[in-house]
Write a structure and sequence with these properties.
single chain, Tetracycline Repressor, domain 2, 14 helices, about 0% strand
Amino acid sequence: MANRRAAPPTEGKHSAPPASPWRASRERVREREVKREAVIRAAAHAFNRKGYHNTSLDDIAAALDVTKPTVYYYVTSKEQLLFECFVAGVEQIRTAFRAVKQLEVPARERLNGVLRHYGEAVASEFGWCMVRAEEQDLSPAMSSHIKALKSEIDQGIRRLIREGIQDGSIHPCDPKMTAFALAGALNWIAHWYRENQSMTGAEIAGAFVTIFESGLRPREGGVAAPARGDTRQAGSRQRAASRATPRPTAPSSPEPRQVGSSQTRQRSAVARPGAPHPTAASRQATPRQTRPRSAAPRQTGARSAATRAGR
């Protein structure tokens, strides 16, 4: 019987390690997030085109070529879809705040970076949801969450404006009113901008930031605008000064001439001697109206007695 020797292992040929079950799990999670994002974008497009109340989950499922239960696998309700669309847009602005926080540049440049991302977000498919979500009939909890996120963005813009006033890169102004003006101008983009227009969302955002840059830049030799709290005091001083300044009085106008008075008639008679009195002339020119007489003659008492005798 021949001796059987074990074949030596072949160099360079190793068996592949078994596939990790967690790797497949991570891929499934990533695939689910991609599909969920597709559902949210389809909902945003539908809300832009038809409005929130006129859009159903069936419309969103038809746009994705899936069934309605498939949509429910990624969201629980249409209200949650609207909220997710709102968050998707606002998250772009929150990311910009975190990015500019690391920059060592004047506050005005950091504010411009945030406003540019703000404008791009509003000009995206999520713009309608960002601006109109709070106006829809949402649950109190959902409305409260939306208000909290909007307040976070507003406070972040005010903070950058205050920092710009302090470092001299922004002209002195009221941070609250300025933040309202900036956000209001950017939010209005969602009402008129459409993706098929000649300018892209990034180009429109850049144009708006250029306009804001001209208004926020410090001006040499200019009069500083009153900061918040000083506006009311300035108004009070103006009202006090206006009360202290005597108002010019209008010259008194001569008393109006009374038509038909005795003095007027006397002056008229002196000016034209021999002219008839205007009142008498009017009486002569106007014929006297007499009461029309009845056609039947009035019977006297004697004639009436003769008539009775002849009968």
